[in-house]
């Protein structure tokens, strides 16, 4: 029927609009009353000057999709409405949208929330006057992430409303690493027994976080049954979407009582004075129009119906007043009403006007973006007592939880999705403790923890059977660590250890078999010396490791006591030995050059001088030289050389000490490839994954020997590879350290170390315990408790040397001392250069070419004889009177010259020029014996009478 606004006048244009609602139920009646009040308020109070007036044409959808479509078709074809408000739900709206697109009639819905309905390209004539269900997914996932829940189960109604949000919800949960192990789908026509059956199925799962997405008619029944069977107790988490949370204020008290502790997410409606006045007015008017409905409560859908009507009235005015006609389609063969509907000429203008409409409504700022109402914030509420209590907010812009809603200008960045910034929450069961989000499925059930059955290395895991009680006691390092870890969890977990053994007490399989039992759900977890490796992680989840990682090799220590005859040569490399020897010779020569002309200790027969020079040089190693060094240049060279020798001898002593000590701890073999090349047998622990690594390295399967205990491994080493034993053993570092601790004087651990992740606890895939236990492992390993556990089992082996010290020392090489030799060499060469420059300068007359008859070689020979003779001008060859001593016996022809420092020059002059001062020639036929005579008389020294003359001959 048509309803006309009371305030219309003759100057206004009436515009037909349709309303499709379920007018016979409470929801439809509330919406319809709000639409009427919106038009009355809009045209009476502030917009009485508008030239258009909306004329409502109401149709009943009769809670049926087909009836809703028929009503919309009638409004478009027969009434030629310019827009339609409604229908009520997403199923009805889905078909009506297509009619609107075909006829260019805008469809405005205030209650259809299915996300799939909105598409600005496919549905340009659909305007959703309510936030779609996917917009609240961010608030829900942020809430779950803030409390650290790792699993969640959605419970939703099996229709288009319920199914529309699930893809968005599951994707968002996976994005925060929260698993969805199960989806609970409940039919809208489900009986109470069917609901109870589904709830019991949920109770058998570990997950205790449930997200409910359905309308109050079904949701109230779900929570009533959940409370009845004990699912509203402490430990459970219930989160409901706005489909149910929007009606919290309208639900009966009995339903609220069954929902105590539930969290709800719903669009936030600011509590303004305008809204408060409207609620009073609406309640009075609705009660007068519907006296049969007692205590009706206005919900958010009524407020949205009010605002969408205002938006339509404003848009109609904007679109103009002279184009409200339909363009009739002319067809000759019309078989259906759908083919005969016309097209609204004002539709495109009305769509444009709606898209630009903005105002402050009852629900807050109201505007459409791509046909979708923009949501400013969601409120998090907690059902408690007789109603609900707001505990926080979430906004699409900030994407964080906050106690108070803040604007952009007053917001801060202190909030984090990982830290819930909410008010106090009362959880189901009147609990104030945050539920952990999972529990053991059945009440009082203990976790069945599988442990390996071992015959060796019992320090890690040891199982002892009591024949009287037929029970087993499990102890060991791994067990103590697990117990300590579980005690640090923020909640109690009961468990019992079950040995993985056959009835006769022997092991029921390998470690891989034991771990696979968790995948088969025969064990809830595995605790023991279980190594984290890739192929095992395909079927189970491991916690963080609690031991050091790696697989290493153990070999016997080589006894080299009978092979140390030449150990004194090993501290230095051959190049350092050779360089040192060369420098000893070189320094001895340099000292002789600098000292032999002025120092009697370096004179005498040629063999004596050579021996003295070398003896002096080598005696500096122990600083026992007895020869004096007189010249300053010689002293400079010796000082530098003694510094070099001091460092060299000290380094040699330290290196020799290291070799004599470490040599006995040298491993017999350090290269895995050498083991393969020799075809040696190697050992591994029974049940270990190490054989796979050894086969990949190239070991023949026939060369792999298994052992069960440290004692058996030691026996295999004693036998040796040639007698069926082993030459090396491969195992994980914790086992190797325990073995070396027991036999530290016989074996050592060598490189290489193959990387593994260490020992970890085993849980089923995606178990919610894994992150909690991993965090607890970090807490234990960083505390003193871990040191206490390690000391209890491994401190007795702490006196053994560290395996890192079992590597032989390296010899000292030339690269460590070349700087010292460089300094010594430069000092010696510099001293030689200075000496030679001074010597040549003092005897420069010998090299002058005054007599062309004298050859250069003759001059050099003369200079050489001077070089090997005494320097009589030196203070060491002067007596008390300061008179020099002769160097030669008198020659047959003696010439007397004054005894002065230049006497060598005079002698040389005589030798070169003869008695009469006439130059001699090298080739003179008239006087062939002249050069020989000059050579024989080359040096003439002064004969000075002395009380005790000493005449020395040049050797």
Question: What labels describe this entry?
Answer:
955 residues, alpha/beta, 28 helices, 38% helix, elongated, disordered N terminus, ANF_lig-bd_rcpt, signal, transmembrane, GABAb_receptor_plant_PBP1, transport
Helix count from the secondary structure assignment: 28
Mean pLDDT: 80
Question: What is the molecular shape?
Answer: elongated
Strand coverage percent = 5-15%
Could you state the oligomeric state of the chains shown?
Answer: single chain
Query: Major β-sheet, in short?
Result: 8 strands, mixed
Spans of at least 5 consecutive residues whose pLDDT stays below 50 are: 1-8, 414-418, 803-809, 880-955
Distance from N terminus to C terminus (CA atoms, Å) equals 149 Å
Structural category is alpha/beta
Residue share in helices? Answer: 25-40%
The strand order across the widest sheet is 8-7-9-10-11-17-18-19
- Cα Rg: 53 Å
Please give the number of β-strands. 31
Protein name: Glutamate receptor
GO molecular function: ligand-gated monoatomic ion channel activity
Domain Ionotropic glutamate receptor C-terminal: 446-796
GO cellular component, one term: membrane
